[in-house]
Amino acid sequence: MDSTIKSTVERTRQYWYIDGFNEMLAGLVFMLLGAINFIGGLYAPSMGSAVLVGIGYPLVMLAWIFAGRVWVRSLKEKITYPRTGYVKYIQPQRSSRVKRMVTASFVAIAVSIITMVVIRGLDPFWVVLGTGLMIAAFIGYLAVQVPLNRFFVLAIWVAAVSIASAFIPVSENLQMGFLLTGSGLGWLVSGVLTLLSYLKNTRPTEPGMEEI
């Protein structure tokens, strides 16, 4: 019984990633964050460049939280559901969703501020390497939880990008820009390849309804 429930949960999680749209969104977000660092890296370290990162990061994260899910859902309604059906997930009450989104907004801002304060005194090499390895570790955790083998490959890619970025002899902002952009590229390629494979192996049908 427990194995059946576990299998159902895993299939539900995997179905959310079946078309690659979530990975493509994550790739765009990482590349936007990388662009912020590249822009900041064009200038000498100053209050202006710090403010750019401090404000730019939360804005991108908030766009991911609020607009990203809407974008992914619209793509699924147009492409995924007509091909492999609509899976209706158990949704929390609206008030709970609003509270969760507001909490996530404050967390995104707080993490950005705390990160800038904590890493200020660290060597840029360790800041970039540590950030990249933490991202890779999270992707590895996701690979186990979903589970999806392509996330293991993505985790290895991000770990390699973090090591390479940490050794590039440029400013910390540019190193972080290379790390985030490289990570985003990995997410984007993974999403595009997944989407192409999905489109190749499925055909539009009358959308069904399956409640989980």
Provide structural commentary.
The protein is mostly helical. The chain has one domain (2-211). 81% of the residues lie in helices and 3% in strands. It is built from seven helices and two strands, in the order H-H-H-E-H-H-H-H-E. Strands 1-2 form a two-stranded parallel ribbon. Helix 2 packs antiparallel against helix 3. It is elongated.
Number of domains: 1
For the largest beta sheet, what order do the strands appear in spatially?
1-2
Radius of gyration over alpha carbons?
19 Å
Head-to-tail CA distance between termini: 16 Å
The proportion of residues forming helix, as a percent range, comes to over 70%
Strand share of the residues? under 5%
User: What is the succession of H and E elements?
Assistant: HHHEHHHHE
What is the total tally of β strands?
2
Low-confidence stretches: 207-212
What does the main sheet amount to? 2 strands, parallel
What structural class should be given to the helix and strand makeup?
mainly alpha
Oligomer: single chain
Shape summary: elongated
- Average residue-wise pLDDT: 81
